[in-house]
Amino acid sequence: MHPMEESTASFPILYSILNGSMLGVGSIVAACVWRWHRRNPPNRAACTDEIVARAWNTLHLGALLFAIVLLFVLASASGRLFADDQVPAARLALITLIYTLLVLMISALNRKRGMTWEEGFGMGPKQLRLLRFSPVLYLAAIPFLMIATQGYHWVLVHWLDIELTMQDAAQAITEERSWLESGYLLVTIVAAPLYEELIFRGILFPYIARQVGVAGGVLAVSAAFALIHSHIPSILPLFLLSVVLCMAYWRTGSLWVSIGIHAIFNAIGALAIKLLY
User: Fold this and answer.
1) What per-residue confidence (pLDDT) applies to 170?
2) pLDDT tens digit string along 59-72?
3) Helices assigned H by DSSP within 123-254
4) SS3 for 54?
5) Helix, strand, coil: what percent of the chain each, to 5?
6) pTM of the predicted model, to two decimals?
């Protein structure tokens, strides 16, 4: 979710100030990042080799994907066990449980491969210092995401007559109150970025990059990341966000950076929703 994905009908002045500020600051930061990149070009072969060396084998990947599908199918089926007023709390509990189980499974499979978190994902204590690059890269990406998304939404509304709606997670934040609201915010800002980055950038990206190269891996993972959210207004924004996240991981070698960008992206979106709705 993100402020640029939401309707501007409520508090248009506040929305305009928020987006205008992000566009202006982001453009300056993007220019600085590009200049730094030109002066400090990456060793492309070394970056690629580091990522590809972390690729899981097909057996481990298949086991993880099977567990993901099974858990979410069981969670969907369990919805009929709860009364309507119990569904929000039950959904939050199930999401938290699934994320926890899958992260534990990833940790176990990573150990089975004989790798530490640092070796498998660049997520050792030493790499935590790289988190300082997350807000910088987020701001640098914002102008491109905003411009592309506004154009995409214009096409959806004016050419395809598709209504712009909020994602389910965003809707839950606007509707729920008290501890449920806090729980959904925590999942959105902390749990979801960790889980999704481990799955998409940490595991799928290296696996596919080993088969078809980095460019193919970025495109395939980004398409999967966008489509799996099942939200038409978010397809292009999430695809572009995934491209940024993949390249940040490739460039820095640490999944901490991608997790940080993803968490900021979700946090800014949640903040905008609370301000505008």
Assistant:
1) 65
2) 999 999 999 999 99
3) 133-158, 168-175, 178-186, 192-196, 205-212, 214-228, 235-252
4) coil
5) 85, 0, 15
6) 0.92
